[in-house]
Amino acid sequence: MQIVTSQHEPSGFEGIYEIRDAASYIRATMTQPGPYGITNRRFIRWIRRGLTLPALSNVHGTKLILSFEDLISLRVIALLRDMGVGFRKIHQSEQWLREETGARRPFATEVVWTNSDEIFQLKGAELIAASLGGQYAMKEFFEQRLWPVAGLDFDDRRIAVAWKPSSDIVLRPSIQFGEPCIAGTRIPTSAVWALFKGGDNIGFLSDSYGVEKAKLLHAIEWEQRLEQASAAA
User: Fold this and answer.
1) Side-chain half-sphere exposure of 186, counting CA atoms within 13 A
2) Where are the beta strands (DSSP E) in 151-196?
3) Which string of DSSP letters, residue by residue, matches 48-101?
4) Are strands 152-154 and 160-166 parallel, antiparallel or unpaired?
5) Which of 28, 70, 87, 213 is most buried, by CB atoms within 10 Å?
6) 37-46, 82-91, 101-110, 134-143: the lowest-pLDDT one
């Protein structure tokens, strides 16, 4: 296994993911399958073409382990593709952002917006078209036509530190190695799911964990979506 980190990763970085898990997490968050599908092989092709961290492009698929930032980068790319943004523009945008910001995984360190044709970065009060080599765009014209690409939490350095893929569910690289957990706890959703499938009811789990029933139900719903996403691989 090879884990490649960067100078932009926060201290205490621990999130690690296999390709199949990353693909399942992202598939589970897509509202519809989309024209390009989120498959393990497609993710590996994107990585081979230099997206996410370039140093991963030559790592053999069986040894490929992703960081939290790689996971977020792949999610952003998947959403951009699903919104109809061309692969060439995605590649150009990431290269420009990498050079402009110094981040090796810029899609995990910058808030990205799209109008389904171009990719933008908000820099101060200015709107920059990353897919057009950093050209300034007319903010007043575009701001009503843009969609945010990622529902992430960023720290004061603009680094993604948490992803909330579903209600009451969060992936935070410093907690449980980045595994999906119930928000506000260190409880993996997979642990709740295993106990629920084993016969424990919601009331018992709520008393045992000291967690609201609604949050436990959301954890179970998330795990059910993951099972469906894994079956669709």
Assistant:
1) 4
2) 152-154, 160-166, 169-171, 181-182
3) HTT-S-GGGTTS-GGGBEEEHHHHHHHHHHHHHHHTT--HHHHHHHHHHHHHHH
4) antiparallel
5) 70
6) 134-143
What six digits make up the tokens of 82? Answer: 């699903």
What are residue 120's DSSP bridge partners?
113, 129
Task: State residue 144's pLDDT score.
Answer: 60
Q: What is the pLDDT of residues 2-44, one digit of tens each?
A: 333 333 333 344 678 998 899 899 989 876 555 456 788 888 8
Each residue's pLDDT tens digit, 212-224: 999 999 999 999 9
Please state the length of the chain.
233
The H or E element containing residue 19 is helix 19-29
